[in-house]
């Protein structure tokens, strides 16, 4: 039962251009969404989050968009830099309903070419 | 400000053995969650500890158990290890119900032979 899906296993982008990573979810109880970046041999690093009461959240080069009706969120990175090359995970939480556990997608490998 | 720390970084065990992994949460955090990440997959939730009690559990057998200490640090114990338990074990800390954002440690890589 894959409640959070990242359908693109990998994405390749030229340095300076926009990277768009997508995520779909099925559980309507999810009310908080997060993006993490992971380098090999390291733990996931928190990037940005969004509550279900919002449809957009920005932090520097990172913007997350949430479309609740489509149960879809996306992470935009502008401009992309070679150091952004990593695995990106989308995660969702249903808060106290699920004890605040995070449900993760399988990840998308982003490669930023210089 | 120290982040989440985990020990050991790597571990090799044989089938049937038992293992204990340790985690210290980020300063000020009182909730610890454990995840298992198999190769090519996203992290899977094992369980969460708050106020020294297991508050939520994922779809993992009873061979997986844990503990939280009064200083909020935590241990994950796995008994009767199977080859399929080989994975990266991640600990994450958070502020309980006050903030759903979880911050992860570097993980412990467990190899079961």
Distance between the termini of chain B: 37 Å
Total of helices of chain A: 0
In oligomeric terms, what are we looking at? heterodimer
Global structural class of chain B: mainly beta
* Alpha-beta content class of chain A: mainly beta
- Tally of helical runs of chain B: 0
Helical amount among residues of chain A, as a percent range? under 10%
Order of helices and strands of chain B: EEEEEEEEEEE
Total strand segments of chain A: 11
- Computed Rg of chain A: 14 Å
Helix content of chain B: under 10%
Distance between the termini of chain A: 38 Å
How would you portray this structure in words?
The complex is a heterodimer of chains A (114) and B (113). With 114 residues, chain A is mainly beta. In chain A, 0% of the residues lie in helices and 54% in strands. In chain A, the strands form 2 sheets. In chain A, strands 2, 4, 5, 9, 10 and 11 form a 6-stranded mixed β-sheet that branches. By secondary structure, chain B is mainly β. Chain B is 0% helix and 50% strand. In chain B, strands 2, 4, 5, 6, 9, 10 and 11 form a 7-stranded mixed β-sheet that branches. In chain B, strands 1-3-8-7 form a 4-stranded antiparallel β-sheet, with no helix packed on it. In chain B, a hairpin with an 8-residue loop joins strand 9 (87-94) and strand 10 (103-104). At the A-B interface, strand 4, strand 5, strand 9 and strand 10 of A face strand 4, strand 5, strand 9 and strand 10 of B.
């Amino acid at each position: 039962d894959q409640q959070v899906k990242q359908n693109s296993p990998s994405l390749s982008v030229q340095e300076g251009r926009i990277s768009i990573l997508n995520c779909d979810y099925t559980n309507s109880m999810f009310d908080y969404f997060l993006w993490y970046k992971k380098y090999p041999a390291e733990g996931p690093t928190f990037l940005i989050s969004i509550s279900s009461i919002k449809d957009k959240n920005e932090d520097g080069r990172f913007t997350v968009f949430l479309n609740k009706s489509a149960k879809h969120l996306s992470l935009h990175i502008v401009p992309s830099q070679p150091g952004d090359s990593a695995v990106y995970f989308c995660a969702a939480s249903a808060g106290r309903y699920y004890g605040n556990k995070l449900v993760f997608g399988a990840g998308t490998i982003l490669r930023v070419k210089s | 400000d120290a982040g989440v720390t985990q020990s050991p970084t790597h571990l090799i065990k044989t089938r049937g053995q038992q293992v204990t992994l340790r985690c210290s949460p980020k300063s000020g955090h009182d909730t610890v969650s454990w995840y298992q990440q198999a190769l090519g997959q996203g992290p899977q939730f094992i369980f969460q500890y708050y106020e020294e009690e297991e508050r939520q559990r994922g779809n993992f057998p009873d061979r997986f158990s844990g503990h939280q200490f009064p200083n909020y640090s935590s241990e994950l114990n796995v008994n009767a290890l199977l080859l399929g338990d080989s994975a990266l074990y991640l600990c994450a800390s958070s502020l309980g119900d006050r903030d759903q954002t979880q911050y992860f440690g570097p993980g412990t890589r467990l190899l079961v032979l």
